[in-house]
Design brief:
Radius of gyration: 27 Å
Distance between the termini: 24 Å
CATH architecture of the largest domain: 3-Layer(aba) Sandwich
Shape: elongated
Number of helices: 14
CATH class of the largest domain: Alpha Beta
Helix content: 25-40%
CATH superfamily of the largest domain: CoaB-like
Number of strands: 19
Oligomer: single chain
Structural class: alpha/beta
CATH topology of the largest domain: Rossmann fold
Largest sheet: 8 strands, mixed
Length: 396
Amino acid sequence: MKSLSTRRVLLGITGGIAAYKSAELTRLLIKAGAEVRVVMTRAATEFITPLTMQALSGNRVHTELLDAEAEAGMGHIELARWPDLILIAPASADFIARLAVGHASDILSTLVLASKAPLAIAPAMNQAMWSNAATQENLNILRQRGAMVFGPGTGDQACGDNGPGRMTEPQELLELSAALFPTGLLAGLKVTITAGPTQEAIDPVRYISNRSSGKMGYALAAEAAAAGALVTLISGPVALATPDRVKRIDVVSAEEMLAASVEAVRDCDIFVGVAAVADYRLEQVATQKIKKSADSLVLNLVRNPDIISTIAALEKRPFTVGFAAETDNMEDFGVEKLQRKKLDLLFANDAGATLGSDSIAAIALWPTGRAELGPASKRAVAVQMLAIIKERLDAK
């Protein structure tokens, strides 16, 4: 079955006994990698509680159109922009009729009108209601507008009848939903990326750092998420927005970045160390601002931990990718670093031409080969890098 990794599914639940199946559907969607937010009509809350759906989805359940807690009370518009798919399961005959005529009388019908996301409907009703000409006409109207109708199934019904109208089973709804989306290069893989500089304190107002902008790491995080990966971005201090669908962990020092990295790779398939980690930190950080009292100042530095080497040395290590930003002998130093740190793959680049820039050229190095990438934008080269990472991961 295709993955729903990183996909956003807004699950609408309307009033009907089949609402109990929405709990299992939510569980399956999340297991397939989707993020799920639930919207319920008032009638739906008579069959299954919002608390149950909140516990299963991990997100607040929406039941009211006007939300005083949302900014300007317009949370439904923000929610309408969020999903990749609106799936209404179960969809009652009444709700289908209201959609067909464009009602916006509750939060769910309003979201459907306000959203540009694909709409899928899983009808659930008595067999006579399903067969009624009005219901069929309403469904035809919705199909003509681009809505997809999943089901219904045929069988015994809660009312005692037997025939068409049963809600399609959750597993089949999951497969039908997943089939709507192409599977990305990294679908379902968990990727951890470090990015940006670290800052090593001298005193409360000064620090040692470098010129890294974080752009390459952020480009990789954005493209990995777009390729279907579950991405954790461990970032030093940068002036960049968090890429969409990426979990970001902010750190400052090398020791903080190491701790976050070790924790993240406990459940990780690929680790990419892009961050420009400071090689040294102060042996003793001053607790008060150091005053300008002499013509020279001596700082005693000690080596920082080597994050990429630490990850590569773990007993249960992920596929480990390093970066080498060099000012000379780029490929020679890259090969040496690849071998010394026992990495699976390394990207070497010219630091002087890359730092702060939006473009990059790099050499991909692995134990049995090499490839040249760019020059091109960092987003474009990130796509090339991820293709090589997946190729080498599969080969391993």
